[in-house]
Design a protein that fits this description.
The structure holds two protein chains of two kinds. Chain A is mostly helical. The radius of gyration of chain A is 25 Å and the shape is globular. Chain A contains 15 helices and four strands. By secondary structure, chain B is an all-alpha fold. The chains are: A mainly alpha, B mainly alpha. Chains A and B meet through strand 1, strand 2, helix 1, helix 4 and helix 5 of A and helix 2, helix 4, helix 5, helix 6 and helix 9 of B.
Chain lengths: ~325, ~325
């Protein structure tokens, strides 16, 4: 029997062939397979380990061609430098004297955008996905194609850009958040999940006097932890990682998210920050490690949910 | 409601008494479901403003845009901008690069992902399997900025790859600024990013295969390898088909390619790296040729739509599975 193990999020197939004595060929295969998996895991992790090693190495060691996975000339000075360099004034009107190192400002911006964006995205995606999941609702004959069509055809970069400028969202947090507020693909995943909630439970809620919002909030939502955890991760990662909307719409440095700051120092030439030209490899590595750290710390713990969540999207109705 | 069958069908679906008129039925439906319609309200307004207005904003491909003027342009419709880019050399370069990069990427990524999923499925130790999966999902969550930042470090002249080449007695190569290396870098890094994540749907499909099929195959004396060929692969064929349609439909699209190309390319490598979406960005946002760039973007979007529709049609006929 094939099962989905809810505690680990693993998909495993109990295979009857286990009972049969394994042939020599299969034993050889198992060894080869293990070696392949070790190589793949190592190659996947290598760039991260290299980055960490560089961030703790001294500048001289890097210039001299140190390329190992163990830091050479170990120091944490680069980290201290990155998080203290170049103070800027985040709120010149309110606190004219307040100056915070720029990396901290960008990091706080990213946290703010991610928190606000994720909460709003979750709410609006679910109040769209929930009524869409009601197959007996007549309007869905129109609304489903209306929503899904936007996955296959859209306005393109320029028309969106012109729209945001026209709405006066340039240089505001909303110019960063609103263009990606609702992701159609995620709405479809959520809709599939909501469809799997037993109708009896919702009907029982209505009989007990809940209205549709009440059923949504007190019955559907608590039953939807897996998809909500998945969507929280996906949306949070999306906001955390986005640099392009910032490039298009945020001019003031005090509003930049950290991903966009990274883009300016990584692209180097043509960067708006003259310092960016002088960013050494260990400084870049530090900034990247600090930015990627929260994601690495969070995603493994939600794995059991997102594996399930992605599977729903693959099941066609 | 002229159609008798239609009418009966609705009756069954709604349990509405025969004597109710359309208007009464609508108002009854509204009384029951108005709270669900309220839920729709904001998201639908959002879709109109942020998805459909830009879609109609594509009319800028045919009408002149004045900064500060209407986002739908003004003046008569014209094909001028289409003619401009159809005859522009950089456009065709970008167009063929888009096809080549997406095509190569698909060609390598698709079979590799499938093989990786089959190999993962053979791992019996569940802790080891979970570890490999967790590690292989990691790159999916990493910002393209960081992926490209890492690539630049790894490929720089003081980086480990050049170090290895040097130790083996070769000449150091400045990968990032050489046009002939761009495709390799693009495809290889893409596989690094997507290999693990791409297996999720395959593994899900494999877990759905009826175990009695394996038992039957074993009884018939099928070897392990034969079971994979005759049971596992046929079992996940619909998934393979669906994913392939999506990929083929995206051959002309920019998808995730825009960010990576934008972060890695430079005028030195345009001949192999410039794709339609980066061309649109340069022309529209950086040089301000809004109309020209919209025309190029619309052309790309339409080809993409046609390609996806065709792939979907073929898949429905051949593999009996489709996106819509």
């Amino acid at each position: 029997m094939s099962i989905i193990d809810n505690t680990s999020g693993q998909i495993h197939v109990h295979n009857p062939k286990n009972k049969i004595k394994e042939s020599t060929g299969y034993k050889v295969f198992t060894v080869v397979n293990t070696i392949i998996m070790i190589i793949i895991s190592f190659l996947t992790l290598y760039p991260f380990l290299y980055l960490v090693s560089q961030s703790f190495s001294s500048e001289q060691a890097i210039i001299a061609g140190h390329t190992g996975l163990i830091p050479e000339g170990f120091n944490i000075d680069t980290y201290i430098y990155v998080i203290t360099r170049n103070p800027i004034k985040p709120l010149p009107q309110l606190f004219p004297k307040l100056a915070i190192p720029e990396f901290i400002v960008y990091y706080i911006n990213t946290v703010i955008y991610t928190l606000i964006g994720t909460v709003l995205s979750l709410f609006f995606s679910s109040i769209l996905a929930y009524p869409l999941s009601k197959t007996n609702l007549k309007v869905n004959k129109f609304f489903s194609p209306f929503i899904i069509f936007t996955m296959y055809f859209g306005g393109g970069l320029i028309a969106n850009y012109v729209l945001i400028l026209r709405l006066g969202l340039k240089n505001s947090m909303w110019g960063f958040i609103l263009p990606m507020l609702i992701s159609t693909y995620y709405v479809i995943l959520m809709r599939s999940f909501f469809m799997s909630i037993p109708k009896d439970l919702e009907e029982a809620g209505e009989i007990d006097g809940l209205n549709k919002w009440g059923v949504f909030w007190f019955i559907a939502r608590p039953l939807s932890t897996p998809i909500i955890a998945t969507m929280t991760l996906f949306y949070a990662v999306m906001y955390w990682n986005n640099w392009f909307n910032a490039k298009l719409y945020l001019q003031d440095k005090v509003k930049w998210p950290v991903a966009y700051f990274l883009q300016t120092i990584i692209r180097g030439a043509g960067a708006s920050d003259p310092d960016a030209q002088n960013m050494t490899a260990n400084i870049k590595s530090c900034a990247m490690v600090l930015t990627v750290l929260p994601i690495i710390c969070v995603y493994p713990f939600i794995q059991k949910y997102y594996v399930q969540g992605m599977m729903l999207g693959g099941v066609k109705e | 409601m002229g159609n008798r069958e239609d009418y009966q069908h609705q009756q069954i679906a709604e349990w509405s008494p025969r004597e109710l008129t359309l208007r009464q039925r609508v108002s009854k439906d509204f009384r029951i479901n108005w709270q669900l319609y309220v839920m729709f309200l904001f998201p639908v307004i959002y879709y109109v403003i942020f998805r459909y207005i830009p879609m109609f904003g594509n009319i800028l491909a045919f009408r002149k845009y004045n900064p500060g003027g209407s986002i739908f342009g003004q003046g008569p419709l014209t094909l001028k901008y289409f003619k401009q880019f159809i005859t522009a050399k950089p456009f065709w370069q970008a167009f063929s690069n888009t096809l080549i990069l997406n095509g190569l990427y698909l060609l390598f990524r698709f079979p590799l992902t499938l093989i990786f999923a089959l190999l993962l499925n053979e791992i019996r130790n569940l802790h080891w399997k979970k570890f490999v999966q967790t590690v292989s999902y990691l790159p999916h969550f990493i910002s393209m900025v960081i992926v490209c930042g890492m690539l630049k470090e790894l490929l720089s002249t003081h980086g480990p790859i050049n170090d290895l080449i040097f130790k083996l007695g070769g000449e150091k190569i400045s990968f990032i600024s050489l046009a002939e290396w761009f495709r390799t870098i693009f495809v290889a890094s893409g596989i690094w990013q997507s290999l693990g994540w791409g297996t999720i749907l395959y593994l899900a499909a494999m877990s759905g295969i009826n175990p009695s099929l394996y038992e039957a195959a074993t009884v018939d004396g099928a070897s392990h390898f034969q079971q994979v060929i005759h049971v596992t692969i046929p079992g996940i064929l619909p998934t393979i088909a669906t994913l392939l349609i999506l990929d083929i439909g995206g051959l002309v699209g920019s998808g995730g390619a825009f960010e990576k190309v934008y972060l890695l390319y430079s005028p030195l490598t345009y001949e192999t790296s410039d794709i339609v979406s980066t061309y649109v960005f340069r022309m529209g946002v950086e040089s301000g040729s809004i109309n020209f760039a919209t025309a190029v973007g619309l052309f790309e979007g339409l080809i993409n739509l046609v390609l996806l529709t065709c792939a979907n049609f073929v898949s429905r006929k051949v593999a009996k599975t489709s996106l819509w």
